[in-house]
Amino acid sequence: MPSGFQQDQNQLQPALYRVVIDMSNDTYNVFCRGDTGTCYGVANPYNWDNWMGNDRPTTVDNALRLARGNIRWARIVEELGKHADAQILDVEVNFNDNNNGDDEPTQVAFTVKYDRYGIDLADGENAGILQAEQKFQQYLNDSTSTSSSYDGENINNTDEAVQEAVMRALIEEVTRSVRVFIPVEGTDPLEGSGSQQEVTAYDATDGGNYGDLRSCISVQLIDGSTVINP
Question: What does DSSP assign to residue 96?
Fold first, then answer.
């Protein structure tokens, strides 16, 4: 007996992309990694209240670096939702040494799900998120060029459009009012408290090689549609 379900071109067809940001500098020396300087703080989904006791940031520099990393992560989420409804799934964070407030992630991986990807198609492959990003690049370039304003890469597929969104979040300067853990340095057990501060996240590469930054961001379509079988 027929189930009553039929696939229709107007149905929502989610697209899922797996994004991996390699911030280790093992291959390319791209990110500012360390304690001081306003550019420091790689993208970090963790906040200081993810840890307790001596696992929290032990220096003010580390606390500010973590806050900038939080801002950059928030910016990635914002930019990925710039042209279409986006949902972030399956976040994985790798650390070099310890998973604590003093350590920096070496890699962040996540899946971005675009629920309206299929219904927003406009003209074949040049459609949806890709078309919106190309038009945005034309606006930035004040021309018909769809090349990235950062590294000149021509944005000609959706993978590159997603890459561009992540790059924009890591490069463009932004100031946010955020809670920052201010430690009493040298105390054991660690003492400190949260403080509301305006923190500026500058270019995470300190004006580095944006072509290498793109190479650090891999994007792969892992599922182009959802099919319901009777």
Answer: S
Phi, psi of 206 (to 5 degrees): 55, 45
Looking at the chain, how many residues does it have?
230
Residue 24 is given by DSSP the state S
Among 134, 201, 140, 129, which residue's Cα sits nearest to residue 170?
201
Which of these, 66, 57, 61, lies nearest to 192 by C-alpha position?
57
Contact 29, 128 (CB under 8 A): no
Domain boundaries, the chain: 15-122+156-223
Determine the Cα–Cα distance for residues 113 and 115; give it in Å rounded to an integer: 6
Backbone angles phi, psi at 182, to 5 degrees: -105, 105
Q: What is the pLDDT of residues 181-214, one digit of tens each?
A: 999 999 999 999 999 999 999 999 988 889 999 9
H-state helical runs in the chain: 60-80, 128-141, 158-171, 210-215
Phi-psi region of 205 (alpha: psi -120 to 50; beta: other; left: phi over 0): alpha
Give yes or no for residue 223 having a pLDDT over 80: no
What is the rounded CA–CA span in Å between residue 99 and residue 104? 8
Q: Are 102 and 69 in contact (CB under 8 A)?
A: no
Q: Would you state the structure tokens that stand for residue 154, as one six-digit string? A: 């021509």
Q: pTM score, two decimals?
A: 0.88
Q: How far apart are CA 176 and CA 190, in angstroms?
A: 26
